[in-house]
Amino acid sequence: MLNLITDPDFLIAAFAAISAAAVVFTFGSQFFDRSDLKDRIKRVAVERERMRNEEMARLRGTRGDHKAEQVSLRSMEGKTLIKKTVEALSLRKAFLDENTINKLAQGGFRAPRHLTTYLFMRFATPIFLFIFAFAYLRITLMPDGELFMTLLYALAAGLIGSYLPVIMLKNSISKRQASIRKAWPDALDLMLLCVESGMSIEHAIKRVAKELGAQSPELAEELTLTAAELSFLENRASAFENLGKRTGLDAVRSVMTALIQADKYGTSVGSSLRVMAEEGREERMMAAEKKAAALPPKMTVPLIVFFLPVLFIVIISPAIIKVAMNGGLGF
Predict the structure, then answer these.
(1) For 130-168, how does the pLDDT look when each residue is reduced to its tens digit (9 = 90+)?
(2) Which alpha helices (DSSP H) does 197-307 contain, by range?
(3) H helices present in the chain, as ranges
């Protein structure tokens, strides 16, 4: 087996196969639709149905309908093994706090099954990594080592695993917020055009969500949910506040606060959106200027490490070669 791995012909064939597979995958992946548009539409539909059921139960004012609505929502999740484990070990009391649901919503995970999966991962990931690290170290890396050191290393891997679901959730939130932040100024401009053309704020939000579906599906999803909340909720301010909470961005919160004040005091929505749109464009320009100003310091280290040595070699090499061909410096 070792001879086969070190054989040059085998290595050349293996690298050629990997290169061919990479080329086929790169070109072939373009023919498949990798967008999760259907999944996003389904999540929005489920969320709208949940809001509609909650609002109908509130209007009826009966606890029986509210309990039936809760049972219908829980039945969508199903009695899976993960859910049974979470309920049996009371993981909600151990890991669930007031910010967990908001963080999951900011990451785009709103269904009850997402919360159950997250709680289960918080519990199972450290145990799995501890067992895997202990077995790997004991069998492969440290078969003759001390048991105490093996347990210590495995425990360290388990501690790292306890933070892994939190880090993955933060990564999802960061990617989602980056997409929303990038498309938010354009959304404000489109919303301003719709409002000034005579549309109501509900229809303007729906139209902007439709137009931004290709540029930022995350922002389109949030705006669609906001339009649904404006249709179902009695208090319009709650719909605007929920959009700010779901995105977790200060720029979105400031615009929602302006819309709440305009709706409360009867001021012009168009003027508020115009001011916020100008501020959004200025902030985006300032962010671009900040990135441009930070580019020279970032290029200093790569320039010194990679470019200057090559430049010196190209400049000095002809002189060194000529001196060597003439038999040295002649001292």
Answers:
(1) 998 888 888 887 778 788 888 898 899 889 888 899 999
(2) 201-211, 217-232, 236-247, 250-265, 269-302
(3) 2-6, 8-28, 37-60, 63-77, 81-88, 91-95, 100-106, 112-136, 147-196, 201-211, 217-232, 236-247, 250-265, 269-302, 308-325
> Rounded to an integer, what distance in angstroms lies between the CA atom of residue 89 and that of residue 94?
9
Q: Would residue 265 count as lying in a domain?
A: yes
Tens digit of pLDDT for each residue in 71-114?
A: 444 444 445 788 888 888 888 888 888 788 888 888 888 888 88
Is residue 22 one of the residues assigned to a domain?
no
Identify which of 80, 77, 87, 166 has the alpha carbon closest to the alpha carbon of residue 113.
77
The answer to whether 196 touches 207, Cβ cutoff 8 Å, is no
Taking a C-beta distance cutoff of 8 angstroms, is the pair 179, 219 a contact? yes
pTM above 0.70, yes or no: no
pLDDT per residue over 159-203, tens digit each? 988 889 999 999 999 999 998 988 888 888 899 888 888 888 888
- Whether 208 and 186 have beta carbons less than 8 Å apart is answered as no
Our count of domains for the chain comes to 1
Question: Which residues are CB-contacts of 281 (< 8 A; sequence separation ≥ 6)?
Answer: 185, 189
Q: Considering the domain boundaries, does residue 200 fall inside one?
A: yes
Residue 304 lies in a domain: no
- Alpha-carbon gap, residue 111 to 170, rounded angstroms: 18
331 falls in which pLDDT band (50, 70, 90)? very low
- State the Cα–Cα distance between residues 37 and 290, nearest whole angstrom: 34
| Structural domain range at position 223 | 184-286
